[in-house]
Amino acid sequence: MDLSQTRISDVIPNWFWKLSTNFQYLNLSHNQISGGVPDMQFNSSYFCMIYLSSNKLQGPLPRISSSVTELDLSNNLFSGDISHALCDQKIHHVENKLEILHLGDNNGLSGNISDCWMYWPSLKVINLNNANLIGQIPNSMGTLYKLESLHLRNNGLSGHIPVSLQNCTMLSVMDLGLNNIVGSLPKWMGTRLSNLMFLGFRSNKLSGKIPHELCYLDRLQILDIAHNNLFGTIPRCFGKLKGMITKPSSNNIISYSFYLGVFIENAFVVRKGREDEYSTILRLVTGLDLSNNNLSGVFPLQLTHLQALQSLNLSTNSLKGNIPKQIENMTMLESFDLSMNQLSGNIRQGMSSLTFLNHLNLSYNNFSGKIPTSTQLQSMEASSYIGNQLCGLPLLKNCTEAEEIMHKGTTSYNIEEDTDDHEEEEKYWIRSWICRCHWPIVGM
Hints:
Blueprint: E1 9-11, H1 14-20, E2 25-27, E3 32-35, E4 48-51, E5 56-60, E6 68-72, E7 77-79, H2 83-86, E8 100-102, E9 125-127, E10 134-136, E11 149-151, E12 156-159, E13 173-175, E14 180-183, H3 188-192, E15 198-200, E16 205-209, E17 222-224, E18 229-233, E19 255-258, E20 261-264, E21 267-271, E22 274-278, E23 287-289, E24 294-298, E25 311-313, E26 318-321, E27 335-337, E28 342-345, E29 359-361, E30 366-370, H4 375-378, E31 389-391, H5 401-409, H6 419-437
Parallel strand pairs: 1-3, 2-4, 3-5, 4-6, 5-7, 6-8, 8-9, 9-11, 10-12, 11-13, 12-14, 13-15, 14-16, 15-17, 16-18, 17-23, 18-24, 23-25, 24-26, 25-27, 26-28, 27-29, 28-30, 30-31
Antiparallel strand pairs: 19-20, 21-22
Family: Belongs to the RLP family.
Pfam families: LRR_1, LRR_8
Subcellular location: Cell membrane; Membrane
């Protein structure tokens, strides 16, 4: 039965809920339905899909029947903790078929994320975004070997990233942004979760260096670890991230197959200073956001190898040196933010060839000289360049004759090296190469 978007309002009578236990498909989403939802004890021995999202339903979450394969109760007014729905002892000894669980955008929920996920081994998608949850991510989530999508964004989660999540090797999307997670980014994310396309830890309390092991993530298209306490240099091997080098295919939608069809992935991505939700075109989006950390060193030349990257944000760090000349190779860049660093030198003439660039922020650095004359660069707001020693349009400061001459004759190169980190990265790649080749070492 599909009664979605039919302007149904008021409370659903009990007789309807009793009747619905015989349904295999029930869609009442996007209405104005209020009241509570009784426990779901469906009679079907095969499968059952329930969509009640975007209503005004309230009260505790209903207990979930073992025959339900997809349940969407998102964007309602449910209250209480989620253990009522997931951890009832009656479900511990039956084969639960649930593959997709969406309880996000229920601000009335509270309490911890229940530690009983081992009873739901078929789960492929979990969305608990914006559900007012606290506490640590439970270890039992690491038993979900089929899990492909994990959304825990915008809660009050704390503690470390559980090691058990390394068992979820099918994960394609992991978004734990806007929480209070501490500790370092684990190395196993790069070596164990090789299917990751989207990795988000934005606005947490992570510390330590960015592990070079993340460079193993060949499919990674979006990495957002902004607004943390990460330090050290930017790994040069980021220039090897294949998902940001090759232009994404326009034919692929990120989706997960289940009993009756497919579930289309969606995720929140911050670009051009704003947050947007992407769904059917998520596969076409690429981005690298390391902003608002304590990163130091230079702008790695290797980043310019990421020719399919659309958004690069390194703002509010302590980066020094120049913008590499090879920046002109990043022809897909639409958004480029280096503001609030200690970068210096001239603005590269080659940046004027970045024809897709429509958001640029180089403010509050130590750049000097003339802004290159081009429609592309001079169409930006003056605020993109303030806080430097720059001249020329769109700024009101005219260039002196000396600055004009210097602009024509000066070429600077990003020759500063971060020796210690470079040596550490070389050793890492040598060890990794030896391990991957599995060559026997024969002693004399």
